[in-house]
Amino acid sequence: MVWQKDLGAAALFFILYVVIAYMYSRSKWILLGQLAAASAAAGLSVFLFSHVRVRIIGWLFPVEHALDEGYQLMRAMSALLRGRWWGTGLGLGMPERIPVVSSDLLFAAIAEEYGAVYFLIFVLHFLFLILLLYTQCQKAKNKFYFYVGTGLTTMLAVQGFLIMAGGSGLIPLTGVVLPFVSYGGSAMLGNFAAVGMIEALSKCPAMENDGGKAAVQTAELYKYVRILKGLCFFMYTVFLLYLMWFYWFRADLIFSNY
């Protein structure tokens, strides 16, 4: 993925790997080593890939580079603000002005036409879905089912946060799709299949006939689900607070000359 310059997908799968590896090894040193390696790789990517530098510059100085590096982000953020709190109305927005709107930034078009109130409720709904899926993972009968379900849920949680927070200016924009919303045949089918797998795995019987030993081992991993729930709740709470600040204090972006 890095060789193909698909760094968004590479970051997503690496985060998934870190989560599963930590739950399996239960070693904080391995976790710290992986985070250090990820930080070093992120810093190195700025020097190796020109499009990463474009995203960083566009994130740090969106108004100053509204015609070049920050063009896509400025279009997305101005669409968010044009809708104000209650939206322009269905079909009355201008989604065609947002680059790659159907796959990467469809949420900006939705927020423009439905408004900030709808978008905030949408983010809360997505968070509750993630928390519900994590709870469903705790019903797994053995560790393999637990790892699969937890990994799939983490993938959806991180993917949603990366694109929504990136498209609104909280973090650098990353080219991933918003689960269940953005256009993309394989991504849409894959996301719905992931939810179906989580539901199915939570109801599958244990593979081992060991008198309930596997269920006990799985229950010992529930603390990691609580940690992941807390991290997701923290991330999306920060994002919601940022959106409130964004809608209150960044109205000047609409009137920027771009």
The overall strand count is 0
* Number of helical segments with 4 or more residues: 10
Query: How much β-strand is present in the residues?
Result: under 5%
**Helix residue percentage:** 55-70%
Query: What overall form do the CA principal axes indicate?
Result: globular
Low-confidence parts: none
Mean pLDDT across all residues, rounded? 82
**Head-to-tail CA distance between termini:** 33 Å
**Compute the gyration radius: what is it?**
20 Å
Category by helix and strand content: mainly alpha
- Biggest sheet statistics: none
Q: Please provide the ordered H/E string of secondary-structure elements.
A: HHHHHHHHHH
Index terms:
10 helices; 258 residues; mainly alpha; globular
Describe the protein in words.
It is a single chain. The chain has ten helices and no strands. Helix 1 runs antiparallel to helix 2, helix 2 crosses helix 3 and helix 6 packs antiparallel against helix 10. The longest helix is centred in the last third of the chain and has 28 residues, at 222-249. It has 258 residues and is mainly alpha-helical. It has helices at 7-25, 28-48, 50-60, 71-82, 106-114, 116-137, 143-167, 185-201, 213-219, 222-249. Helices cover 66% and strands 0% of the residues.
